[in-house]
TrEMBL record:
<dbReference type="Pfam" id="PF01547">
    <property type="entry name" value="SBP_bac_1"/>
</dbReference>
<dbReference type="InterPro" id="IPR006059">
    <property type="entry name" value="SBP"/>
</dbReference>
<protein>
    <submittedName>
        <fullName>ABC transporter substrate-binding protein</fullName>
    </submittedName>
</protein>
<keyword id="KW-0732">Signal</keyword>
Length: 325
């Protein structure tokens, strides 16, 4: 704490919308009076590009990075972006929390589907990708869909996870069926706005942050965890090799892996993943809650490893074939 107080505050380049991440920063600053943290909200690609450009010039840059891009994290590790630090509290989390080389999963977020509650009700809301594909084929007028394009890192990771869980043949047969009815948006909030306004009835391969977003649209939109496949996308964090405030960054990392940090994450809609986690605030964004809603064997954390990076060209090409891009 003493070392952190002599530093110039914590700078984070991250992919979390500021409104979602504010409860986490507020809780950290309350736990450590006198310390300040700020997040610059960027896309996954911008997070790494901005840091590496500034670090190469010797400029003040981010002390921590946050992104949901397994393939990009691998490239960042290879480029020497991350500092190999270890947080306190790691033993209280699943093994997948530690992705190696100083990269830790802050929030293993479930890929889910979002639906317009005015256009789809009851049994019309598909509970599996198999059902969604069948409905899209059988009633394309009702099942107007939105999703991300493949060059969005979350979409790539989600499809990688679907292929792992469902098998390549089945996963692509579903995506082939969905493609003709799907309009893609680079920004998830744009797709969700389209859905709420009635321009689409479902958004698939949507971010787990919807669990926080949906609170303000009760009666207009709801979300569903698909019962045949739920990939978890690692929204990961790392202290940077060129951090100007390494002690503050270490404290923030420790905080994220504490009970108070998990409560703050859950309150913002991020997935709390502490073992045997019970929320203090009644929130439901947690792995403990998710596992009560989906069958065993249908959840898979997309890893930050070379295999995920190596598969990207093939999955990208197959997606473009399905979506005629």
């Amino acid at each position: 704490m003493a070392a952190a107080k002599s530093e110039s505050g914590l700078t984070i380049y991250g992919n979390a919308p500021n409104s979602f991440f504010k409860p986490v920063i507020d809780a950290f600053e309350k736990a450590y009076p006198g310390l300040k943290a700020t997040e610059t909200n960027l896309s996954d690609n911008q997070v790494f590009a901005k840091y590496e450009a500034e670090a190469a010039q010797g400029a003040r840059t981010a002390d921590m990075l946050m992104a949901s891009a397994p393939a990009s994290w691998m490239q960042a590790e290879q480029n020497g972006v991350t500092a190999n630090v270890t947080p306190q509290g790691l033993a209280d989390f699943p093994p997948e929390t530690n992705q190696g080389h100083g990269v830790y999963v802050m929030s293993p977020e479930p890929i889910l589907t979002v639906y317009n509650a005015k256009l789809l009700t009851g049994s019309q809301v598909p509970a599996s990708y198999a059902d969604l594909a069948a409905q899209a084929r059988g009633n394309p007028g009702l099942y107007r869909l939105v999703s991300y394009p493949i060059d969005n890192e979350l979409d790539y990771a989600g499809i990688y996870g679907l292929v792992h869980i469902l098998g390549e043949s089945k996963a692509w047969s579903y995506l082939d069926a969905l493609a003709a009815n799907t309009k893609t948006y680079d920004e998830g909030l744009d797709a969700l706005q389209q859905l709420v306004q009635g321009g689409a009835s479902m958004d698939y391969i949507a971010s787990g942050l919807v669990q926080g977003w949906a609170k303000q649209y009760v009666g207009l939109a709801g979300y569903e965890f698909m019962k045949d496949a739920t990939p978890l996308i690692p929204r990961a964090v790392a202290v940077t090799a060129k951090a100007s405030s390494p002690a503050t960054a270490q404290l923030f990392l420790d905080f994220l892996l504490s009970k108070a940090g998990q409560d703050a994450l859950c309150a913002g809609g991020f997935e709390a993943s502490m073992n045997n986690y019970t929320p203090a605030n009644g929130c439901t964004a947690s792995l403990a809650n998710l596992k009560q809603q989906v069958p065993d064997g249908t959840v898979y954390t997309v890893p930050i490893n070379q295999a995920t990076l190596d598969a990207q060209p093939g999955i990208t090409a197959r997606w473009k074939q399905a979506f005629h891009r």
